[in-house]
Predict the structure.
Amino acid sequence: MGADLLEIADELYALALADFTPARDAKAKELKGTDLAKEVKALKKPSLAAWVVNLLVRHETEQVEQVLQVGAALREAQASMSGDDLRQLTRQRRQLTAAVTTQARRLAREHGQKVTDAVAEQVEATLTAAMVDEDCGRAVRSGLLVAALSSTGVDAVELDRAVAVPDALGFEPTVRESEPAKPDLHVVPDPDRDEKALAAAREELEEAEGELTEATEALDEAASALKDLEARSMQVQAEIDELKRKIAELEEAADQVDDEIAEAEEARDEAQQVVTEATESRDAAAAKVARLER
């Protein structure tokens, strides 16, 4: 992934959310015929929470750096802390992320974007992830997030789909000067506004349909895999039932053989008794013959 793509992404992800898709497509069209055009076209529009964090990184860089530095210090210190100290540490971390989230909402409002409580929770979760996980912190610092983050600091976070490009980790975006809110001016409407809005809506529809197709294919694959497993389960159960039947037959045969063994042992003992008695009779007769012959 070349530096050119990172530079283009830096520009695109600094734009207002509504301007992202038209600007991306225009850039891809400008680069038509190059490998870079396809890569630019593949850049995903950020979620609202991700856009707010990207905005914060570019316009309140020092604040974000403070969050990341505090996070690094806390990760290093918590290994030697007691349970009470850790709980106090967690409260302080929440206070910091809540304060920065409030600042992020204000900044988004200044840039014409309202942030709901639900989105604010995603922003705060992303900042928390940046504090407890070093790689999440690098992803946030890149300013190229496309999705909100979540981490407990225990398990590794898959960041491939959370950042715009694989080389985002370690990238530092261009710092932007915060612009004051513009007064509400009466301007001449853009004659092509409706067509542009329609084109943007169609683009979003195309992306949504693409995502729906991917999701449907994944669902079909999962359903097919489940069907195969259910069939295999029925086959295994049938084999288990057959084995149980054979075991029952063998156990019955074993019981019958045990009975026959007992009968054979009894017959052998009776035969042995007959042999013993016959031997005694023969020995007595032989002794008698010997006496008479003297």
Summary: DSSP finds nine helices and no strands in the chain. The mean pLDDT is 84. Residues 193-293 form the longest helix (101 residues). Residues 22 and 196 are 8 Å apart (CA to CA).
